[in-house]
Design a protein that fits this description.
heterodimer, A: mainly alpha, 2 strands, B: mainly alpha
C-alpha cells in the first residue's frame, strides 16, 4: 500500500482539472506546480551548500529571451527557449567557474550571485526601449479569431494545457532531483560543503562537481522563466529578476524543507496558500492591509529558521520517523 | 569626449558626495559583520524604518526636524538591539548561511510592516533645499549635508572604537571571538552594543537619505544590494576597505550614469564588483 502512495497521489493530482474546480483554483494549482518546479530547480544546488541569491538572473534570462525574440523578431518561443538556455548556461559558467576556482563560498558566494541577479534586472530596465523597462512586457498574441492553441507561439488559452505541461516539467524536476540525490555528485558536494580542502585532497574535483549542479540548476530555472512568461503572458523585471524574486526562491525552499524532495514544492504551496488563505479569511479587510500576508510570511520565516531549520516537510518527516512507522516509500 | 568636461567634473564631484553617504551605509553593516560575523540582509530595511520614523514624527506628529531625526536614530538603534536579541542570538551557533537567511525573513517582515503602517504611496518630508551653485556646476544641498554628516559619522565611529573602553572591547572581540570572554569581556553584551551602534548608524543614514529621496516600503531594495556589495568589495568586516570601496563604487555609479544612463552606471559598478571578486576574493584590502 505504502509503495503505491506516490502513484495514487500523482493520479489524484493529474485528475485535478476534471474535478470541476473553477478556473481560479486551477490557476492556483498551476502556480503551485510552476513555483514548485522553480524552487526545486534552485534546491538542486542550494541543498548542497551552494546557496545562490542570484537565481532571479536565470529566471529573468529565460523569460525575457523568449518574449523579446518573439516580440522583436518574431522568433518562435521554442527557439527562444533554446536561446535562453544557452545564455543562462553561459552566464552560469561565467559566474560559476571563477567562483568555484577561487573558492568563493558561503556569504561571499551568496552576495556575488546577488550582484548577478541585480545586474540582470538593471540590464532589463536599462534596455527599456526594447524591453519596456519597469513597465514589463507582454508577448504579442498569436491567438486571434478564437484560436485556443498556437503551438508555434507556445500560447494556449486553455488552462488545462498549461496544467499538464507544467505538471510534466515539475515531475521532470523531481526526477532530476532524485537522480542528483542518488548520484556520486551529491556525496562529493556534501563532502565539499563540509570541508572543501579535505574533499579536494581525496580526489574530488571540486570545481567540476559544483559546476555540474550549478549548470543543471541554472538551465532548469531559465526554463521556469520561459514557462512563467508563456503562461502569465506578462513579465516584469521585478517579478522575474532582481533581489526580490531571488530571495523569494531561497525562502520558499527553506520554508518547505531544503533537504527533502518535495520540500521546495511544499514551500511553494505554503507561500501561495498563505496569501490566498489570508485573502479568504480576511475578506475585505485584506484589501486594507495589502502586505499582511508578507508580514506573516516574514515572521514565519524567521521562526522557521530559528526553530525548524529543516522546513515544514523536513520537520514533519522527522516527527513521523520518531514514531518509528515511516512508510518505506515516503518521499525523502 | 573632452576629459576636462565641466559636466564630467560635476559627475565626479557628485560621485564623491555619494561616496561619503555610501561609506556611512556600509560602515554599520561592516561593524556588525566584523564583530558578530553575521550579514544583516535586512540592513537597508532598517534604514527604511528609520526614514519612516523621521517622516512620521516630523510630518504626522509635527515634531521639529532635528528632534524627529534624533528620535529616528534612537528608534533604529533600539531596533538593532532587538534584532540581535530576538533574531540573531538564537541562531548564533547555527550554520552561517542560516544566520544570513534569518535576517532575510526580517527583510520581508519589515517591508510588509512598513506597507501596513504607511501604505505603498511615496512619502517625503516636503523639505526643499535649494541647489548650491559652484562655478558653472550645481550641487544638491542635501547631498553636501549628507556628505559632511556621513564623514562626521565615520570619524565619530572611529573615535568611539579607538578611544573608549567599550570600543576597544568591540575591536578586541572582532579580532578573536574565543579569547575575549577569558579576558573578562562579556561578548553577549558587546554584541548587543554593537548591534545598537550599527542600528544607530543605519538611523543616521536614514536621516540623510530622507532629505534626498522619497520613502516607500521597497526603497531598501534599491540601495541594499549596493551596500552589501561595497562591504564585500572592501572585504566583509574591513571598515577601511569598505570606505575605499564606497568611493570607488560611487564613481562608477555617478560617472557611468553620466556617460550612459543611470542603470548602466549600476550595471558597470556591479560587473566591476564581480570581476574584482575573482581577482581578490577577500576584498580589495583583504589580501588574496
Amino acid at each position: 500500500m505504502a509503495r503505491r502512495l506516490p502513484w495514487i497521489g500523482l493520479a489524484l493530482l493529474a485528475a485535478v482539472p476534471f474535478s470541476g474546480i473553477g478556473n481560479y483554483p486551477l490557476h492556483l494549482v498551476i502556480m503551485c506546480l510552476l513555483w514548485g518546479y522553480v524552487y526545486t530547480s534552485w534546491s538542486i544546488m542550494g541543498r548542497l551548500g551552494l546557496v545562490s541569491f542570484g537565481h532571479g538572473a536565470f529566471l529573468g534570462i529565460g523569460a525575457y529571451s523568449v518574449v523579446m525574440l518573439w516580440n522583436l523578431f518574431g522568433i518562435s518561443p521554442w527557439i527562444g527557449a533554446v536561446a535562453g538556455i544557452a545564455v543562462s548556461t553561459g552566464v552560469a559558467l561565467l559566474i560559476g567557474l571563477p567562483c568555484f576556482r577561487y573558492k568563493i563560498v558561503g556569504h561571499y558566494f551568496a552576495l556575488v550571485t546577488l550582484a548577478l541577479s541585480e545586474v540582470t534586472r538593471l540590464v532589463i530596465v536599462a534596455l527599456r526601449d526594447q524591453t519596456g523597462g519597469s513597465l514589463g512586457a507582454t508577448p504579442n498574441t498569436a491567438l486571434a479569431q478564437g484560436n485556443a492553441w498556437s503551438l508555434g507561439a507556445l500560447q494556449f488559452s486553455e488552462k488545462i494545457v498549461w496544467f499538464y505541461l507544467i505538471l510534466v516539467f515539475w515531475l521532470g524536476a523531481l526526477w532530476i532531483w532524485a537522480k542528483v540525490d542518488r548520484g556520486m555528485t551529491r556525496l562529493a558536494l556534501e563532502a565539499i560543503s563540509q570541508e572543501e580542502d579535505a574533499a579536494a585532497s581525496i580526489g574530488i574535483n571540486v570545481t567540476r562537481s559544483k559546476l555540474f549542479v550549478t549548470l543543471i540548476s541554472a538551465v532548469m530555472t531559465s526554463v521556469g522563466g520561459v514557462l512563467y512568461a508563456q503562461y502569465q503572458l506578462y513579465i516584469n523585471p521585478e517579478t522575474v529578476s532582481g533581489i526580490g524574486i531571488s530571495l523569494q526562491m531561497v525562502f520558499g525552499v527553506i520554508a518547505g524543507g531544503m533537504f527533502v524532495m518535495l520540500g521546495p514544492t511544499v514551500g511553494a504551496v505554503f507561500t501561495l496558500l498563505l496569501a490566498e488563505g489570508l485573502r479568504l479569511a480576511l475578506g475585505d479587510a485584506f484589501k486594507q492591509f495589502p502586505a499582511l500576508d508578507l508580514a506573516i510570511y516574514g515572521l514565519m520565516l524567521v521562526l522557521f529558521i530559528i526553530y525548524m531549520p529543516k522546513g515544514i516537510l523536513g520537520a514533519a518527516l522527522d516527527a513521523w520517523d520518531k514514531r518509528g512507522t515511516r512508510p518505506a516509500s515516503a518521499p525523502r | 569626449m573632452d576629459v576636462f568636461d565641466i559636466f564630467l567634473l560635476e559627475a565626479v564631484l557628485n560621485g564623491l558626495l555619494l561616496g561619503g553617504l555610501l561609506a556611512l551605509l556600509s560602515l554599520g553593516l561592516n561593524l556588525i559583520f566584523g564583530v558578530i560575523d553575521v550579514v544583516w540582509i535586512c540592513y537597508a530595511e532598517m534604514i527604511m524604518i528609520g526614514m519612516y520614523a523621521v517622516y512620521a514624527l516630523h510630518v504626522q506628529q509635527q515634531w521639529p526636524l532635528l528632534a524627529a531625526m534624533a528620535a529616528g536614530i534612537a528608534i533604529v538603534a533600539l531596533l538593532g538591539a532587538l534584532m540581535h536579541q530576538f533574531v540573531i542570538r538564537p541562531v548564533l551557533s547555527a550554520e552561517p548561511i542560516n544566520q544570513l537567511l534569518v535576517t532575510g525573513g526580517v527583510l520581508f517582515f519589515l517591508q510588509a510592516a512598513a506597507t501596513l503602517a504607511f501604505g505603498i504611496e511615496f512619502k517625503n518630508l516636503g523639505v526643499k533645499l535649494p541647489p548650491v551653485p559652484i562655478g558653472e556646476m550645481s550641487f544638491s544641498f542635501p547631498r553636501i549635508i549628507a556628505f559632511a554628516v556621513a564623514l562626521l559619522g565615520v570619524v565619530a565611529t572611529y573615535l568611539f572604537l579607538t578611544r573608549t573602553y567599550v570600543g576597544t572591547a568591540i575591536r578586541a572581540i572582532s579580532q578573536d571571538r574565543a579569547i575575549m570572554p577569558l579576558m573578562g569581556v562579556n561578548p553577549g553584551r558587546i554584541f548587543v552594543v554593537t548591534s545598537a551602534l550599527g542600528g544607530a548608524l543605519a538611523g543616521l543614514s536614514a536621516c540623510l537619505l530622507v532629505l534626498q529621496y522619497d520613502i516607500h516600503p521597497a526603497i531598501g531594495l534599491s540601495f541594499g544590494p549596493i551596500t552589501f556589495l561595497i562591504c564585500v568589495l572592501g572585504g566583509l568586516g574591513n571598515m577601511l576597505g569598505g570606505l575605499v570601496a564606497a568611493f570607488i563604487f560611487a564613481q562608477f555609479i555617478s560617472v557611468g550614469g553620466f556617460l550612459f544612463a543611470i542603470e548602466w552606471g549600476y550595471v558597470i559598478a556591479f560587473v566591476f564588483f564581480i570581476a574584482v571578486m575573482f581577482w581578490r576574493p577577500r576584498g580589495i584590502l583583504g589580501g588574496k
